[in-house]
Amino acid sequence: MIVAVAIIGIVAVVGGLVAAVALAGGGSRHVADAGYSSTYPTYSTTEETTSETTEPEETTTSATRTTTERATPTSQTPSGPRSVPRTGDNPLFGRADYGLQNIPCSLTRWATDQNSVQRFFQSGIACLDAMWSRMLGAVDLPFESPNLSVPRSISESSTPCGSGGTTTGVTPFYCPTNNTIYMPMDRIEIETWGNHPGPYLSILAHEYGHHVQNLSGITEAYGDQRYDAGADSAAGLELSRRMELEAQCFSGMFLGSASVSGGSVDKNIYNEAWNAQDRGDDYARNGKRDHGSARHNISWWQHGATKNRNQQCNTWLAASSDVS
Questions:
Q1: Count of CB atoms within 10 A of residue 178's CB?
Q2: Domain count, the chain
Q3: Which of 14, 121, 218, 235 is the one with CA 20 to 30 A from 104?
Q4: What mean pLDDT do residues 176-186 have?
Q5: Euclidean distance between the first and final Cα of the chain, in Å?
Q6: Does residue 2 sit within a domain?
Q7: pLDDT attached to residue 41
Q8: What backbone torsions phi and psi does residue 243 show, to the nearest 5 degrees?
Q9: Residue 208 lies in a domain
């Protein structure tokens, strides 16, 4: 199977929370160019449509009169794409040649004040939306843009996935219950990364990766499997690592694709992100092996960045040794 890499994420099976691990370390590493061409298959976006249903009428005619009777209403399946609760055989991985299209991003300028951070992340979501909406539409999966919250402190947030820092720990996170990415100012390592936007963009792309997992149905299937295995059993923790490392790979796919598109995600931002993936269970204070080693966090992210193919990020079919 493919070499593994990883994510900054933490998945907590409490209230449906998917959270990301805080950045740790940041040593310089060799940077390779993103290895894609600038063109990919053109995907048509499948838009969900809804229409009002009317009750059909049955008309019976006799020699003396005409009567109209209403038929009994029948339930109908909602139109449009629907998520598929599967992991390794999810439709997202159905085509070996499918990856993110190289769409130029228009990011706002990064600065460390709260308003600038909010604008930067919102502009990043707009670019992530443009890429992933096409991908999900191409494989007939639903799409909607996530919400964004950038509080000054995690303690200011009360979410369906936990309030304050009690559930979310010390990291940014995605809450599928209300479809929101939380990027607290005191949890994105500004003191470490300063005015270098690459690491922050990769964190956002990782959390957006959890959003993609939720839209596709992977999150639902993962939650069921981990519950059945036991959340903190060896099998349950391995499932958590697969979930997090896949989001890490999706983050790499986005940065790699955006960096060859001629937009504001230039090689400098890409290189900053490439060198910021040294994180994971090696630095966990609680000792849990639920995010993957630093080596695998690095390798899965770089694998996504250089391959840009959905199937290459399918951690569910990877060997256990590649998601340790």
A1: 13
A2: 1
A3: 218
A4: 95
A5: 14
A6: no
A7: 33
A8: -60, -45
A9: yes
